[in-house]
Automatic annotation (TrEMBL):
UniProt keyword Chloroplast present: no
PROSITE patterns: VOC (PS51819)
Record-given protein name: Glyoxalase/bleomycin resistance/dioxygenase family protein
The UniProt record lists the keyword Transmembrane helix: no
Source lineage: Bacteria, Pseudomonadati, Pseudomonadota, Gammaproteobacteria, Lysobacterales
Keywords, sorted A to Z: Dioxygenase, Oxidoreductase
Pfam families linked: Glyoxalase (PF00903)
NCBIfam families listed in its UniProt record: ArsI_CadI_VOC (NF041414)
Organism in which the protein naturally occurs: Marilutibacter maris
């Protein structure tokens, strides 16, 4: 079964671990000096946080799949829709080795679809796209690889439409 994935950048890892451990009523499944991950069952979520010298907030969202065919189906669906994707094979990221497909939505939110192949002893692999700046697993997607250009805002200031 697939699992939704959320990865947040946090300023204070210890405080964030205490908060999310209380919120989820569960200890992290993976705990490192710069990273923690909870594998929640209800709802099925792979929730990760890291403290890697990046602005706090959502780093990326995604789907963790269980098979190569499920990952291939996501890539094919994106290709059929004309969405440019960035595949990675055997990427070392977040203390795991994975095959991945990255895209960016029209707002610039990075989406990672991935299949975990095994554990890794480091946060990232220096030669992999996921380690472009050495601090994050989400690659810097070139503008030409984005899904579509963001639409213009439909709401005027103070219109209360949203």
């Amino acid at each position: 079964m697939n699992r939704f994935h959320v990865h947040l950048n946090v300023a204070d890892l210890s405080a964030s671990i205490r908060f999310y451990t209380a919120l989820f009523a569960s200890e992290p499944a993976v705990l490192k000096d710069d990273y923690a991950k909870w594998m929640l069952e209800d709802p099925r979520v792979n929730f990760a946080i890291s403290s890697r010298d990046r602005a706090s907030g959502v780093d990326h969202l995604g789907f963790q799949v269980e098979s190569e065919s499920m990952l291939a189906a996501i890539g094919e669906r994106l290709d059929a829709a004309g969405v440019a994707s960035q595949p990675e094979t055997g990427a070392i990221c977040c203390y795991a080795r994975s095959d991945k497909v990255w895209v960016e939505d029209p707002q610039g939110v990075k989406w990672e679809s991935f299949r975990t192949l095994g554990e890794a002893t480091t946060y990232n692999g220096s030669a992999r796209a996921c380690a472009t700046d050495g601090s994050s697993c989400s690659p810097d997607m070139p503008a030409e690889r984005r899904a579509v250009e963001p639409p213009a805002s439909c709401c005027a200031p103070d219109s209360n439409c949203c």
